[in-house]
Amino acid sequence: MLEIDNLSHVYGGGTPNAHHAIEGLNLSVAAGELLCIVGPSGCGKSTLLRSIAGLIRPTGGQVRIEGQVVRQTPDNLAVVFQDYSRSLFPWMSVEDNVALPLRRRNLDKRQRQEAAKEALESVGLAGAARKYPFQLSGGMQQRVAIARALAYRPTLMLMDEPFGSVDAQTREDLEDLVLQVRGHHQMTIVLITHDIDESVYVGDRVVVLSKAPAHVVGDLKVHLPGPRDQISTREHPDFVHLRAEVGRLVRGHATV
Amino acid sequence: MSAETLAPLRPVSPATRWSRRAAGALAFAALIELVSRTGLADREFLPPATEIVWRAVILVTDADFRTHALTSLLAWAIGLAVAALIAVPLGLLLGSVPLIDAATRSVVEFLRPIPSVALIPLVALVIGTGLQHRVALVVYASLWPILYNTMYGLRGVDPVAKESLRSYGFGPLAVLLRVSLPSAAPFIATGVRLAAGVALILTVSTEIVAGRGEGIGVFIFFAGIAVPARMDAILAGVFWVGLFGVLVNALLVAAERRAFRWHHAQRGEAG
Question: Are strands A188-193 and A60-65 parallel, antiparallel or unpaired?
Fold first, then answer.
C-alpha cells in the first residue's frame, strides 16, 4: 500500500548548518495495517510524515502510495496533526470544518453536509455540529480533526502525534477511538508518536526510528489479544514485554 | 493563563462604558459652554456648545446643507469602497508572492509617506474639483491602512492551518482564499476601520481646498469666508463630521466583534 524507498531529506543542503533529518529510510506498509512509528524526539518523524503526505519534496529516495510515486499531495490521503487548535479553521463551525475537504470530492453541498454529520456521529460529536472549535475542549477538537479525516474517506490516514496535546484520560479515549474507527473504515493508518506504550497499545506493528538522521532500527509485530482494553491489555505479559523491547530500541539510539 | 500573576481586570459592561463616554463628552461641552458664556473666549470665535448643537440641529432642516452632507457621504463611501477593492487583492498578492513584494517595495515605500493632503491641489489640476477629485484622494489615502493590514494579517496566518488544507490536495490559490484570507480578515477589517477615518479627513479637506461645488467641506469653507465669519455654522458643520466619524467607528467595531468572535476567543479576550 505504502512503500518508502531509501528516503533521505536534508534541510539547508549545501550550507554549513545542513540538517540531515532522514537518511536511507526503507519501509513498507500493507493495506489495512495500523502502523505506529516511534522515535526519540527531534528524530525526523514529522519530516517523514510530511514526505509521505507530499507536503515537502524529499531530497532523496521516493515514496509510493498504491504504486504511485508521491509528487504532490495524494488524493486518497488525510492527515491529522498534533496541534488541533491550529489545524482546525476557527472561523468555521465544526460541521463546515469537516465538510470543507469534501469539496475535493464530487459531492454537492447536501451530500457534503450529510457526510460531515455522519463522520461527527462516528466520533461521538453529533451534537456539536453547529458549534465553533473554540467552544470545544481540546479532546473534542481533536475528535473533530479525526472526523474531518474520516469524512474524506482516505485509504491512508496519517496521524502526527495526534494525542500529544491532550490530558492522559482524553488520550486513552482517543486511542480507543482510533481502534474503533479503523474497524468501521477500511483504511491504512500510520500513527507517529513518541509514546512507547501508546505505540504498542494502538499498533499492529511498531517501527522504531533512530535519532536524526532517521532510519529504521526496529520493526516489531504486535500480537495482542483483541479487542484491546486500556486496563487488561496494558497488564498483559506480551504488552509489558513488547513495550520494554521498543523502549530499549528507542533508548539505545536516543543517547549518544 | 497568567490570571494569577496579573491584577484582575474589572470587566466593564457596555452600559457603563457608554455612560462614561457620554459623561466625558458632556463635560467637554460644558467646558466650551463655560468658556464662551463667561467671556473667557470671544463669542464670535467660540460660541457656546448649546448654540453650536442647536445650529447643527437646525441645519438638518436646510435642504442645501443636506445636499452638501449627502455629497460628502457619497464621495466618502465610493472612495472607501474603491480603496478596499484595490487594497485587499493587492495586499493578498504582495503578501503571498515575495518576488512581487520585493519588486514593488521601493515604489510603495516612496509613495506611502507622501501626505495625501499635499496632493489635493495637484490632483485638482489634473482632474478638476468634482466628485472624482475627492474620490481619487480618498482612495489614495485609504489604500495604505488596508494594504498594510492585509499584508500584516497574511504574515500571521498559521502554517499548520495552511498545511492542513494543503494535505487534502488543495492548491495554493484555494489555500489563499480559504485559509489565508479568512485568517487575515480581522486585520483587514481593522484596516478598513482605520481607513474610514482617514477617508473622512480627506473628503472634508479636499472639499475645503476645492472651495466649490457641494460638500460639507465646501459648506465650512463658505461659512469661513463670509464677512463676518460664521463661526457657529463652521462648528455646526464640524459637529456633524465628528459625529459621523464616531458613529461609523462604533458601528465597525461592533461589526468586527460580532463577525470575529472566533478571533477574540482564540486570543483569549472576552468575546
Answer: unpaired
0.90 cut: is pTM over it? no
Contact criterion met (CB < 8 Å) for B262 and A87: no
The DSSP secondary structure of chain A, one letter per residue, reads -EEEEEEEEEETTTSTT-EEEEEEEEEEE-TT-EEEEE--TTSSHHHHHHHHTTSS--SEEEEEETTEEPSS--TTEEEE-S-HHHHS-TTS-HHHHHHGGGGGSS--HHHHHHHHHHHHHHTT-GGGTTS-GGGS-HHHHHHHHHHHHHHT--SEEEEESTTTTS-HHHHHHHHHHHHHHHHHS--EEEEEES-HHHHHHH-SEEEEEPSSSB-EEEEEE---PSSP-TTHHHHSHHHHHHHHHHHHHHHHHH--
Longest dimension (CA), chain B: 75
Average pLDDT over residues B214-218: 92
Distance, in angstroms, between A47 CA and closest chain B CA? 13
- Length, in residues, of chain A: 256
Q: How far does chain B reach from its first CA to its final CA, in angstroms?
A: 16
Q: Looking at chain B, which residue has its C-alpha nearest residue A90?
A: B262
Q: How far apart are CA A8 and CA A10, in angstroms?
A: 7
How far CA B121 is from CA of A161, B60, B72, B126, B212, in Å, comes to 63, 30, 18, 9, 13
pLDDT band at B268 (very low <50, low <70, confident <90, very high): low
Instruction: Check B169 against A74: CB less than 8 A apart.
Output: yes
CA distance A226 to chain B (A): 32
Q: Per the CB < 8 Å rule, is B262 touching A90?
A: yes
Among A79, A83, A86, select the one facing B167 at the smallest CB separation. A79
Question: How many angstroms from the chain centroid is the CA of residue B95?
Answer: 23
pLDDT at B6: 56
Q: Do A55 and B168 touch (CB under 8 A)?
A: no
- What is the ipTM metric for this complex? 0.86
| DSSP annotation of B117 | G
